[in-house]
Design brief:
five-stranded antiparallel beta sheet, three-stranded parallel beta sheet, globular
Length: 395
């Protein structure tokens, strides 16, 4: 293989066209509507690999979702918002999302720390924060309605709430993200809640979330290594990944969080304090602790704090979908979200594709693409000698 050319498309349909006409040999996203047929048409080239990651929607903790008539303030108001966010998350049918939209072996999520992440004793069993079985969906919906009716006006005649503020839900380019956004929009519309969807270019989308310029947004996280801290330290107040805005702006001054049930005597105790004084302190303590039993017990407390806010609406545990031409060998997709290319090699494509240039394509949603530039870990995956030239191109 003389040339390894990498393109940066953000259109699933364009990627599939280039794969099918032989121009590209590897793509890592396909149109959601085509998944079922691609499985049949390309049984050896359509691949679903395991990943340790969670696809979720996140709320902005500083956006007001209480009705104008509500007189609650301070910590009591935020506790009500957390109750509302948690209830709205229960209205979503995660089995529908994975079976009808994802269609690639994703697992309904009941926690933020992903399935496949092991505990201190090596086990990976965890009951989660809500029941994701298909039989539980109706009960989850009934459970959700009670707190919503406590805070919002509900018209029994039409079965809808009448005073919920409208909210926006941005997502980046991708048919799967769009389909999930439309599903969320439809479910909430059924109970009288307006969600305005916004499809944004990748860099614009990142800035929208980072700056807190939306009510809620689609999100996802893949672990860097086998430790739950990868999912938990991103929510400290000063983290660059803190899209929820914990410990920022109005939320920074809220005194309402507690560490009065520590699993070890070593931990600090706070009855009521701010997010930075509790969650941030807890994460820092976890990072300095070497005893795994206590570290993991502390991380369970951290996830409990996180999920109690209702700001993380976990939808499914991830899989990695990609299409790889049969002529290419040496490609590997590990569960940590990076595509490994260091052993990549292969002959020119079959006779139907002999005119095509050997090429690789990665969408901007790939963990290999950061801010529009190609990310290459030379120290981990040395660039192979099989390609005499490396090119990065716009799609």
């Amino acid at each position: 293989m003389d040339v390894l050319a990498c393109y940066l498309p953000d259109d699933d349909n364009n990627m599939l066209v280039n794969f099918e006409n032989g121009a590209w040999q590897l793509i890592d996203s396909v149109p959601t509507s085509e998944i079922a047929s691609l499985k049949e048409k390309y049984p050896t080239e359509f691949v679903v690999a395991g990943q340790i990651g969670t696809y979720y929607a996140c709320w902005n903790v500083n956006k007001e979702i209480l009705p104008a008539s509500c007189k609650l303030t301070g910590a009591k108001a935020e506790a009500a918002r957390a109750e509302i966010r948690s209830a709205l998350g229960l209205l979503l049918d995660r089995n529908y999302i994975v079976n009808e939209i994802g269609q690639a072996g994703q697992v309904p999520a009941s926690s933020f720390v992903s399935m496949g992440m092991t505990d201190a004793d090596g086990s990976d069993e965890f009951d989660g924060y809500w029941n994701t079985s298909e039989d539980a969906y109706m009960d989850n919906g009934d459970t959700a309605m009670a707190p919503l009716k406590k805070y919002y006006a509900y018209d029994e005649a039409i079965g809808m709430f009448t005073d919920v503020t409208s909210m926006d839900y941005p997502y980046n380019n991708g048919s799967g993200h769009q389909a999930i956004g439309e599903y969320v929009q439809g479910v909430l519309a059924d109970v009288g809640i307006t969600v305005n969807l916004s499809n944004q270019e990748w860099n614009t989308f990142l800035n929208t979330r980072k700056n807190g310029d939306c009510f809620m947004a689609r999100n996802g996280w893949l672990t860097d290594y086998n430790d739950p801290i990868c999912f938990l330290d991103m929510w400290v107040s000063n983290s660059g990944n803190n899209d929820i805005q914990y410990g920022k702006d109005a939320h920074a001054g809220l005194v309402m969080y507690s560490l009065d049930r520590p699993p070890t005597a070593w931990m600090c105790r706070w009855k009521t304090a701010t997010w930075a004084q509790t969650y941030d302190v807890l994460i820092n303590a976890i990072k300095s602790r070497t005893d795994n039993a206590n570290r993991y017990a502390m991380m369970h407390v951290a996830e409990d704090m996180l999920m109690t806010t209702g700001c993380v609406v976990s939808l499914y545990f991830c899989t990695d979908i990609y299409m790889l031409d049969d002529s290419v060998e040496g490609f590997y997709s590990p569960p940590l979200g990076l595509q490994v290319l260091h052993a990549l090699h292969g002959e020119q494509v079959s006779s139907a594709r002999q005119a095509a240039q050997a090429a690789l394509a990665f969408p901007q949603s790939s963990r290999l693409v950061q801010g529009g530039s190609f990310f290459w870990q030379r120290s981990v995956f040395p660039f192979p000698k099989m390609a005499a030239e490396f090119k990065l191109k716009a799609a």
